[in-house]
Design brief:
The chain contains four helices and six strands. The protein has 146 residues and is an alpha+beta fold.
Length: 146
């Protein structure tokens, strides 16, 4: 009845066997990892690594084959696929936010860094030289509203 039934049966059988072969899954994972390695990430993100690959539970199904076209570049055939097999990739990376903090500290000009250091030092010297007795409260009592 369906004109693509035979083609889908052959494709299903071949792909089902291929999906269950570990060396083919390893080859696919290697290709995907090579593509992931080409992705440019910010300096605070480590490389993206493929840690899991699940090819799913079913095979693709051909839904439509378009009319072939012949031109100077050769014969072209467009095929529409439908896939509902839950293909899953698991990737892993590490984001080091500490690199952002150290980069922002290094980007502070020397004049600003010196003034920040001196103001911190003066606050520290005030705190250390202030005499605080046990009778003096650390926080003043709030004034009553009039």
């Amino acid at each position: 009845e369906h004109p693509l039934l035979g083609l889908n049966l052959v494709l299903s059988r071949v792909l089902w066997d291929m999906m269950r072969q570990t060396h083919i899954a390893h080859a696919v994972a290697t290709k995907i990892q090579a593509k992931l390695a080409t992705i440019k990430v910010p300096y605070f993100v480590d490389a993206i690594t493929l840690t899991g690959l699940d090819v799913g539970s079913s095979v693709p199904r051909i839904t439509r084959v378009h009319r072939s076209k012949l031109n100077d570049q050769g014969l072209w055939t467009y095929i529409d696929f439908d896939y509902l097999g839950n293909f899953t990739l698991t990737v892993d990376t590490r984001v080091d936010l500490q690199k952002l903090v150290t980069a922002s500290e290094q980007s502070v000009p020397e004049e600003d860094a010196a003034s920040e250091t001196s103001s911190v030092a003066s606050v520290d010297s005030l705190n250390s030289s202030a005499a605080v007795s046990e009778d003096t409260p650390s926080h003043p009592a709030p004034k009553p509203k009039t």
